Amino acid sequence: MKAPLVSIVCVSHGRRELLLRCLESCSRQDHHRKEIVVVLNPGEPAVESEIAARFPAVRMVRTHRNIGFFPALNIAIANATGDYIMTVDDDARFLADDALSRLLDCFVDEPALGAVTCNLEGPREVPVEGPDRYFREFTTGFTMMPRQVFTDWVGFYPDLFFRSGGETYVCSALWDQGRPVKKVSGVRMYHEWAGTGRSRRDQYFFGLRSQLLCALMRDPLPMIPLVLLSKLVRSALFFMRKGMAVVWLPAVLSAICHAPSALSYRRPMRMATWRLMRLVDRQIVTDLGELERRFGFRLAGPI
Q1: In the chain, how long is the greatest CA-to-CA distance?
Q2: Structural domain spans, the chain
Q3: Which CATH fold topology does 7-191 show?
Q4: pLDDT digit of tens for each residue in the chain (303 aa)?
Q5: Contact call for residues 11 and 91 (beta carbons, < 8 A)
């Protein structure tokens, strides 16, 4: 039986050295059926030349300007041909050469999984110790998913999510379909958390806007007023503590302006899934039987 093809996809924005280190770790992966697709967002001729020289098998796609992380990631996925999509951040790298193989094994062991995500370590991450566990949502740049997530089950990330929010959008749909998300404790990536290409103002602005829009897209109708009110109050206090209060109102107004577009994507999760995801967020869950007993959770396929 032919091994599945894994597409490693990466979006890069102005991080040459880190990107090259990332690609080196991707190239060393021992899973022999793999391809690497990099979207340079925007294109950088010098970086493209160096990638072509050092990693000739890498497929490169360039944008004419910074179109945002999730729109660029959609382009990378659309240009990938693998059975599984492994998204990696350009400022991260695999810490072992068998990472892809071990993540693929998870789907063999649990065919109903919607996504498996790596354990992170780095300046701002502390690895999760203990057994593998189910998580409310993955961190996009360190996660493997079947291609069907984008072609059949959920669809591509909405372009409204410039740099955050896509995780919640996809994971809420996967859990609602009976496709759990799992963090694999023994598969680790190192995340540099590079400052290059990161704007503190944009981080807070797009983060809040995406949270508000995602609530309109995914939350059950009875919960939307409560969820939005909670997010507005909590974010206002948070922005003030961080000295970014002047960003709060523009982010809220931007969310209001984009609300009609967000509603066009609306596919609300069931109330049981809404409660389930909050439990998984608060507690360590290693046994799906607990979710079945408490929430009537049913897997999309047999484990």
Answers
A1: 58
A2: 7-191, 200-264
A3: Spore Coat Polysaccharide Biosynthesis Protein SpsA; Chain A (3.90.550)
A4: 789 999 999 999 989 999 999 999 999 999 999 999 999 999 889 999 999 999 999 999 999 999 999 999 999 999 999 999 999 999 999 999 999 999 999 999 999 999 999 999 999 899 999 999 999 999 999 999 999 999 999 999 999 999 889 999 999 999 999 999 999 999 999 999 776 656 889 999 999 999 999 999 999 999 999 999 999 999 999 999 999 999 999 999 999 999 999 999 999 999 999 999 999 999 999 999 889 988 889 998 644
A5: no
Give the whole-angstrom CA distance, residue 118 versus residue 188: 5
> What phi and psi values does residue 40 have, to the nearest 5 degrees?
-90, 115
- Which of 199, 28, 215 has the alpha carbon at shortest distance from 36? 28
Q: Looking at the whole model, is its pTM more than 0.90?
A: yes
Task: Tally helices (H) and strands (E) across the chain.
Answer: 11, 9
Tokens 């961190």 belong to residue: 139
Token pair of 299 as six digits: 């897997």
* Rounded CA separation 27/97 (Å): 9
Q: Residue 190: what are its φ and ψ, rounded to 5°?
A: -95, 130
Burial 252-279 (b: 16+ CB within 10 A, else e): bebbeebeeebeeeeebbeebbbebbee
Contact, 54 vs 28, CB < 8 A? Answer: no
How many Å apart are CA 138 and CA 281, to the nearest integer?
Answer: 11
Which tokens go with 45? Answer: 């001729």
Residue type, 274: W
